[in-house]
Amino acid sequence: MPIEVEIITGRTIDQGKTVEEKLTEEYFKAVSYCELNEEDFRSLGLKEGDRVKIKTEFGEVVVFAKVGSVPKGVVFIPIGPYANQITSDDTDGTGMPLFKGVKGVVERTEENVKSIKEILGVE
Amino acid sequence: MENVVCTFCGSVCDDGVFEDGDVRKLCALGKSKFSKKERIKAPMIDGKEVSYEEAIEKAAEILVEAKRPLLYGWASTVNEAIRLGVLIAEKVGGIYDQCASVCHAPGTLALIEEGVPGGTLGSVKNRADVVIFWGANPVEAHPRHPTRYSVMAKGLLIKDRKNRKVVVIDVRETKTAKLADIFVQIKPGYDYAIISALRAIVKGEKIEADEVGGVPVEKLYELAELMMNAKYGVIFYGLGVTQSRGRDRNVENAIKLVQQLNRKTRWVIWPMRGHYNVVGAGEVPAWEVGYQFAIDFSRGYPRFSPAEFTAVEALVRRDCDAALIIASDPAAHFPRKAVEHLKKIPVIQIDPHPNLTTLLSNVVIPSAIAGLEAEGSVYRMDGIVLRVKKLVETEYWSDVQILEKMYEEVVKKVG
Amino acid sequence: MLWIKNGIVIDPKNGIEGEKMDIFVKEGKIVEESEVKKEECKVIDASNKLVVAGGVEMHSHIAGSKINTGRSMRPEEMRVVRNVAGKFRAVVGRVLLTAPGIGYEYAKMGYTTAVEAASPPIGSPHTHEELDAIPILDKAALPVFGNWHFVFKFVSEKDQEKLQAFIAWAIERTKGYGVKIVNPGGVEKWMYGSNVRTLDDEVPIYGVTPREIITEVVKANEALNLPHCVHIHCNNLGVPGNYETTIETMKLVSGMKNENRPVLHVTHVQFNAYAGSSWRDVSSGAEEIAKYVNKADNITIDMGQPIFGHATAMTGDAPFQFTLHKLIGARWSNKDTEIEGGAGIVPIVYLPKNPVHALQWAIGLELGLLIDSDKVVISTDWPNGGPFTEYPYIMAMLMSKRMREKELERVSPYVQKASSLPAIDTEKTLYEVIKMSRSLPAKILGMENKGHLGVGADADIAIYNINPNEVDPSAEYDLVNKAFRKPAYTIKDGEIVVKDGELVAETWGRTFWVDATKKVSMEAIEADLDEYFQNYYTVERINFGVDERWVKKPARLEVS
Fold it and tell me: Do C4 and C461 contact (CB within 8 A), yes or no?
């Protein structure tokens, strides 16, 4: 069963370390996952290494799922191309997209996580 | 080489030691900055290797022929390069925008509304007995900020970590929260409401609710008490405040809280700026043309409008027909719809490293890494200027060299 | 080479008072007639025109973090379009201006040199970056010393040797020109939420007082014999009754003497010339101050004249800015800076019908009128008092009682009882206002080649469409006001940059800085510098300051 969540994005140390090496496996690993609350993780029937599909009104993306220190109902994704498939492009007149706090749904999926080039649509 | 200035984050630590291609004393991010990485090998036009001169001329041609080119990025280069970028944007009647528009520009909008009562990092180190991180996670984004400037830093009046209370306010228990004396977990999107509640308490009003934004009211009273009893307090706010519901209004509200607190004691507030020279990317255009970001020159003079001339807005509304992207990677960091338009228009990229934007650029111009292969001045998150150094020789042209040549070519074409 | 022919020259430094004469220019300097080949000269016909030295701005906030934060926080100021990009840069700004705009607008008024009046030392690289973005003008910057902990330390130790060494070190490191003091001790007290109220209030930790800071710093400045005297923004700025503090401050240097210039320059005195005990009974203290300054032989001031309309208060006097924010409820920026001091910014507007604003306006003029013209310099303390582009208005007002009477009709009647302006009959002469805007500021700054037209001077020249021997500024104040706004020519280093009030060339001036390091032993302060940088700064000592090679056109003045 899909669950409703609020999606937040942010920096992580691994994302930072690899930010100037975006075409590497390390960067891919640093940005292609999300963190869920342990309870949400279990209720989606997930285990380490599983994938989830996250959908918002702005798009959808498949990422790896991990347990993280987020409250129930909140999903964290490191900033980057995966997060940006689903973040809001509405800036409310400020120029700033709503990178934190977009509502969406998360479900377990068998689909694969796309490569960065596939995400960008250049391959 | 000692006293090396790091060109990763807004902390701009200036005590690195560079030896044999390796750097000491800096954090993991700083170390990665100075480590060997894949580089863009040569200038390219449509994937074909060309000379710098050819690539730059082609770039100038694209910029001059476009009706309204977007010149975006600038947060990870030196002021001298930024200045040339502003001049080029003015010459070609384009849009100048910079990374802040997707980071801390809401803080600039709040500055416009209320001003910013702030201080340098040295003021915090020397005086702050209460430090609040609000929606900021320096342990992962500015790893040495806590030791050099804020949490553990010792100075004139603060001689020991015990002399200082550290509060973290966030929607999740970040690594920074683990350093705090007090962690206040809030519901996403409730920053504004919580700040309003604190303002009310500081003003002496009663809160008629049990909780605000997921925080029990007793806890808010305690926090307000702590703030009022501080001798010198600081709120460092991060993207948790500027990128969530309320955006600029969250910051504005926090500034009003700080204004109020200054009627009782001393408080300052400051943004945790991300890239090492994102401050310069706003300061330089401010003195050259009057504004920090979202600047359009299509009428021959600068106009400022975040709702129209920020990169995301210009791309989402397909309001630009070419782009020069420098020292930044919007293809990775902009919402999908904005990237869609970037894929459709001619893109010029200037960057030392290949990234997602490289994959959709028509003209790619590799550059020297500022702070390692090129020098120049940069502004730390608190506006303090540091001169980044050239530590090693390189064949790559610096951003300044590239843009000087590009400016020359542009002037040749438009007069 | 230039031959400026038949102009009517006023050159107070050289005692020339409206003489018809020719001026010759070669390689950016004013030279003897015999130095030029007349057939190779570009001839400027200055018949019936006033020929004077380029104006010298000695107190304006033209560069650095304050003015730039002001721009960022006031986009409404930047919406006025002054120039569209083309041959010259696009320029926007109402009272605040972009850096290119500052150069253009001063030049368009016949001014050719300007000094940034308050540069935070650690911010000096920023100040220089902005100075480098200002075209045409020659420039300099004054680093701020009065709340710097090194100064507190050396003053508290009564160690003149160290204080002198430190000042020399700091001016060299910041590529500064002289010593500025802003609310000494008061800004440090602001770090604890208060301010000093008298010259004898003590600074926390160090126990020093404003009296001691000012006295010792002036002594050090004189011992170093720096070209510029100490330039002070007094304590208690903006507080009714503060004229007494101002006079007390002036008295601190009594008995001290310098042959070439004053020993203390008290800046934007209008803001420090209030009598009374509150804003309800505030009145002018200008007469008292004028009496003191006229009698003293070692003090000069500048006016800090408010101009009705928009302005932005920005000073290193952080506690005052907070008070202003509370008083008028406007936006407020503040910056506490390491262990050096602070600053604040608050937008304001001066309204003619507001009794206090009208009084401020009157006090500025009183100072300009009552003080001898070899002791008072024209200034608005841009952008604190308003636009510098209104200097022609100030000059015209000082020269015409009739103009003042007309202006008095539109301002609050409060000035009638609270100031002496309506009763002042003095009308300064053209010669005097030229002195107040040229030779006097140059003399106070110790810039020998500025502010005059003698042989050897920099060829910075302004030519205006008035004949001083024919015009009657008292009656023809409109004509005078207009003429000073639109020079027939502005010449910078021998190049014509403005013609008929329009910009015709963009040149780049020098940045003057003073090197007094040879006069002191740096050894004396090595250990103190290391200790303070290590413990209290957030940058390494070696990364502090500005190297000469980073500055576009540096001009070093060595003090020996």
Answer: yes
Query: Per-residue pLDDT tens for C289-299?
Result: 999 999 999 99
Tokens of A57: 């009104």
Which of B 267-326 lie inside 8 A of C, CB atoms? 268, 282-284, 286-292, 297, 299-302, 304
| Nearest C-alpha neighbor of A58 from the set A30, A33, A31, A88 | A88
Residue of B168, B138, B111, B147 lying closest to B9 (CA atoms): B138
Claim to verify: residue B253 and residue B110 sit in the same structural domain: yes
Task: Write the ipTM.
Answer: 0.96
**Which of A59, A84, A100 minimises the CB distance to B334?**
A84
Q: Where are the beta strands (DSSP E) in C147-229?
A: 180-182
Q: C214 is written with which tokens?
A: 């000012």
One domain for residues B244 and B109: yes
Confidence of residue B20 (pLDDT cuts 50, 70, 90): confident
Distance in Å, alpha carbon of C172 to nearest chain B alpha carbon: 17
**B136 occurs within a structural domain:** yes
CB-based contact (8 Å) between C223 and chain B? no
Distance CA C351, CA C354 (A): 5
To which H or E segment does residue B242 belong?
A: helix B239-242
Quickly tell me which residue has 């290193």 as its tokens: C316
Q: What is the mean pLDDT of residues C494-500?
A: 98
Of A91, A87, A92, A82, the C-alpha closest to A114 is A82
Q: What is the pLDDT of residues C406-464, one digit of tens each?
A: 999 999 999 999 999 999 999 999 999 999 999 999 999 999 999 999 999 999 999 99
**Number of H-type helices and E-type strands within chain C:** 18, 26
- Answer yes or no: is pLDDT of C377 > 90: yes
> Residue B194: which H helix or E strand, with range?
helix B191-203
Domain at C343, CATH number? 3.20.20
User: Is residue B226 helix, strand or coil?
Assistant: helix
Number of domains in chain B: 2
**Torsions phi, psi for B349 (to 5 deg):** -120, 135
Cα four-point dihedral sign A45, A48, A49, A51: positive
- Does B have 3 or more CB contacts under 8 Å with C? yes
Over the stretch A41-83, which tens digit does the pLDDT of each residue have?
999 999 988 999 999 999 999 999 999 999 999 999 999 999 9
The architecture of the domain spanning A3-110 is Beta Barrel (2.40)
* Cα gap B375→B362, rounded to integer Å: 28
Cβ contacts of A71 on chain B, cutoff 8 Å:
171-172, 185, 187
Instruction: Tell me the pairing of strands B363-366 and B347-351.
Output: parallel
Half-sphere exposure of B363 (CA within 13 A, CB side): 27
Q: Are residues B99 and B154 in the same domain?
A: no
Say what angle helices B105-114 and B248-261 make with each other, to 10 degrees: 50
Residue C331 domain boundaries: 56-445
Distance separating alpha carbons of residues C115 and C227, to the nearest angstrom = 14
